């Protein structure tokens, strides 16, 4: 099924609920449906570069849109957390970020920042040949033939600052007290601030939690709901 009913679509699609019965359904990809915006919807309803989905499809098919500096020709492609959407002809770049009480939204970014992306490590495992593979939240993988001390220090839950399009790791950001983090899920989604406490030593059925010092006071949320985005300050624009 290529469509879903607008009433059932995630709120961050930001489409008029009663303008039509259906809206396009995201293709299978790096982000789940509850954590993405289809590229065609993004062009039509968020950036307003198209008035109809037919126009949005034409823009995409003409290879005018880049996601993480890679041409995407599928108007149903799921664009999600921290992804960089670029329109080279307009010299405009946007990042997908969670906004408090609004869900995923677009933040306009400038210059060199458009080539930087923060990715959360969600899996770390050994693969054939004795290599170490790290999987990031956006589906990207890094495979290391030689495993040194720096690579061994990468832990699940940490973040990596990655440069595109060459896909090179610039900095390792640990999920630890004192670093700057963004809440990416849950009721506090979109809040950000310094980590003041990380509690991993909790007994079942409780789960590990993180407490952030935000501009609106302290916020406590699940450890899995947090992404490290900097050390003393965020390394990308968050608003």
UniProtKB/TrEMBL annotation:
Protein name: Small ribosomal subunit protein eS4
Alphabetized UniProt keyword annotations: Ribonucleoprotein, Ribosomal protein, RNA-binding, rRNA-binding
One Gene Ontology cellular component: cytosolic small ribosomal subunit
The RNA-binding S4 domain, residue ranges: 37-101
NCBIfam families listed in its UniProt record: PRK04313.1
Lineage summary: Archaea, Nitrososphaerota, Candidatus Wolframiiraptoraceae, Candidatus Terraquivivens
GO BP: any one term: translation
GO MF annotation list: rRNA binding; structural constituent of ribosome
Classification via Pfam families: Ribosomal_S4e (PF00900), RS4NT (PF08071), S4 (PF01479)
Organism listed in the record: Candidatus Terraquivivens tikiterensis
Keyword match Ribosomal protein: yes
InterPro entries named among the record's database cross-references: Rib_uL2_dom2, Ribosomal_eS4, Ribosomal_eS4_central_region, Ribosomal_eS4_central_sf, Ribosomal_eS4_KOW, Ribosomal_eS4_N, S4_RNA-bd, S4_RNA-bd_sf
Similarity comment text for this entry: Belongs to the eukaryotic ribosomal protein eS4 family.
Keyword rRNA-binding belongs to the record: yes
């Amino acid at each position: 099924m290529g469509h879903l009913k607008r009433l059932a679509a995630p709120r961050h699609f930001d489409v008029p609920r009663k303008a039509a019965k259906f809206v396009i359904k995201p293709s299978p990809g790096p982000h789940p449906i509850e954590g993405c915006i289809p590229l065609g919807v993004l062009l039509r309803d968020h950036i307003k570069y198209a008035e109809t989905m037919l126009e949005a499809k034409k823009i995409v098919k003409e290879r005018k849109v880049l996601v993480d500096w890679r041409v995407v020709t599928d108007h149903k492609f799921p664009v999600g957390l921290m992804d960089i959407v670029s329109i080279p002809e307009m010299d405009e770049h946007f990042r997908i970020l969670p906004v408090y009480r609004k869900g995923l939204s677009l933040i306009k970014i400038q210059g060199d920042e458009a080539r930087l992306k923060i990715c959360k490590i969600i899996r770390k495992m050994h693969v054939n040949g004795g290599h170490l593979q790290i999987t990031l939240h956006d589906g990207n993988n890094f495979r290391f033939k030689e495993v040194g001390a720096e690579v061994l220090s990468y832990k699940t839950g940490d973040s990596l600052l990655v440069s595109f399009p060459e896909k090179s790791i610039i900095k390792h950001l640990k999920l630890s007290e004192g670093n700057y983090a963004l809440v990416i899920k849950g009721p506090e989604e979109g809040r950000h601030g310094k980590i003041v406490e990380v509690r991993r030593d909790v007994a079942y059925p409780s789960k590990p939690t993180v407490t952030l010092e935000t501009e609106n006071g302290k916020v406590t949320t699940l450890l899995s709901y947090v992404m490290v985005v900097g050390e003393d300050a965020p390394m990308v624009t968050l608003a």
